[in-house]
């Protein structure tokens, strides 16, 4: 699956994203709207990780979820 699939179906995926990264609020997830770059930035901010780490975590998440 590609990230565009997650972005297109954000409403269905955002619960799974919040399960994985529980420090993200519903409002933040609504603002992110499925944007990969926005989510990377928010993960960096909330978890104090590097951009590369955030991208690795998202790639791992993406490979393990499906609708």
Task: Walk me through what this model shows.
It is a single chain. The protein has five helices and no strands. It is an all-alpha fold and 67 residues long. It has one domain: YjbJ (Protein Yjbj, Chain: A, Orthogonal Bundle), CATH 1.10.1470.
Short description:
With 67 residues, the chain is mainly alpha-helical. Helix content is 75%, strand content 0%. The chain has helices spanning 3-8, 10-20, 26-32, 36-47, 51-64.
Terminal CA distance reads 10 Å
Q: Superfamily at the CATH H level?
A: YjbJ
Element-by-element helix/strand order: HHHHH
Distinct helical segment count = 5
Helical amount:
over 70%
CATH architecture: Orthogonal Bundle
Mean pLDDT value? 93
Number of domains: 1
Shape: globular
- Name the CATH class: Mainly Alpha
Radius of gyration: 11 Å
Give a quick set of tags describing it.
67 residues, Protein Yjbj, Chain: A
Topology:
Elements: H1 3-8, H2 10-20, H3 26-32, H4 36-47, H5 51-64
Helix pairs in contact: 4-5
């Amino acid at each position: 699956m590609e990230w565009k699939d997650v972005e297109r179906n954000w409403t269905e995926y955002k619960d799974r994203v919040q399960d994985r990264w529980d420090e993200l609020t519903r409002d933040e997830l609504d603002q992110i709207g499925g944007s990969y770059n926005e989510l990377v930035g928010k993960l960096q901010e909330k978890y104090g990780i590097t951009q590369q780490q955030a991208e690795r975590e998202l790639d791992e998440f993406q490979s393990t979820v499906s609708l």
